[in-house]
Amino acid sequence: MKTMNKITVLVLCICSLCTLPSCNSFLDYNEPQATLSLEQATDPQYVDNVIVSAYAIFISAEDINSSFSMWNFDVRSDDAYKGGNGTSDGDVFHQLEISKGILTTNWNINDMWVRLYNCLSRVNTAIDVLNNTDEADYKLKAQRLGEMYFLRAYGHFLLKRLYKNIPFVVKSNMTPDEYAELTNTTYTNDQGWQLIADDLENAYKVLPVHQEDKGRPTKAAAAALLAKVYLYKAYRQDNPASHQVTSINAEDLQKVIFYTNPSIYSEGGYALEADFHNNFRPEPQYENGVESIWAMQYSMNDGTKYGNLNWSYGLIVPNIPGVTDGGCDFYKPSQNLVNAFRTDDAGLPYIDNFNAKYYDKDSESADTRLFLTIGIPGLPYMFNPKYMMSTTSTWSRSNGLYGYYVSFKHNVDPDGGYLIKGSWWGSPMNRIVLRYADVMLMRAEAEAQLGVDLADAMKQVNELRSRASQSTGAINNYDLKYGVTMKVRPYPDVPGQEEVLKRVKMERRLELALESERFFDLVRWGEAKPVIQKYYDEEAKKCNIYEGATFTADKNEYLPIPHEQIAASNGHFRQNIGGW
Q: What's 420's DSSP letter?
């Protein structure tokens, strides 16, 4: 079983340092609390407690309805259905999956906003404490500041992908009056991305190549997040009256190529796992593997009742009678996603017409990653033949409304000792935030967009496809025992720029399926409207919940600014466009 030394977290309530009006907004968690003066807090014996507190909130502040993995909001993509017991079960998320009826007063819209700004408040408190700490007394000051800049960038990154126009809290010791003057229109879209990049540039300069504590970001982690930020920044959306991509900036794409240089990652020991499946296993020998650049660290057997478990996937567990009773069966893989894994006789995907027919495991081949990403009727659940999946209510609480597929990347074998029942279901399995496969795909995308090295772009894609073909450790008997045909091969050629870009985008979907990147990718590319509307129209032919579903361009790409935040901003926050 996975274990971790427990670090006692002392939450320091230093009101003058908070970026939110009240310390109460970020002290609602079951951690020891103490009120200290700034002079006391900067004593070296307390500084580490402040820093650990900033890390801790990125786990303690999320929950099943507001997971920082963003699975709750990925139901807007063509990768997944909301799931659950029906459309009224989590109705505010059903509104997101059909892009209709979304209200600025919906609790889930405000809840994520509050939780992430609470995280930023904790981080800024740590930054202020560090800035007021004597480096002679605290030798790790510069490095720990780099870690906090990384966390602040990460929090703003999550917020910006969701809401686009956000207030940036980049001053650590804001007064209540300064906080009251914050606006969400101070910066253009491009300037906002640059603010996030600036924090990461500062982190990159001082973070070490290796960290003894796995949860702390390294230089490679800063580089990977920098690459992601510059990739988003490259697709300019600076017209205040539109969310459409107006241009693609070559300078930003060159930054992506710089920060995805393989030497940055090889120096830190990062590479692809030999088997794709190893990234999504809870056993200690697979956690923090070579592909995991930065991950949320969860644990069990650390001296507390439940340990430091990940409860944010608690709704995704299926409801297996007598085994996972109470499993809510949310976040169901879509038929559209399953179809995307179909392969032709050459082991290549049907990029342009993958959804022309449903995948049939008995008559056609599929990418190996399908069986490591999605549970399919007729095959074992989590590779355990004791639990054979079927088209029954066990595998669909909605009796088929949301289909019978199950996500494998979020679940663990019920018999493996890693599924824990509390108020919900929890697991100690880490959640990888940045993995090397994503770095490779970002590099390939930048190269394809620039047209500078199409051969290298295809090399990145083909390395992933070759790895997929060898990822059979958990499913090596599927062909003989279940009649499944697995076929995934590298592309044999290097075509023109447009075709390479199509291949890269398809590979992102397959490799990162159900890792909550898909919707944000579509928005970043400016393709959300045509792709999602086509998805709605095709789904409506077989599933009545999508009848009338309409994706409205220049509206549904982003969440609205929560009404509660606008009401409390004294007129300083402006609602996103789209007629919310």
A: E
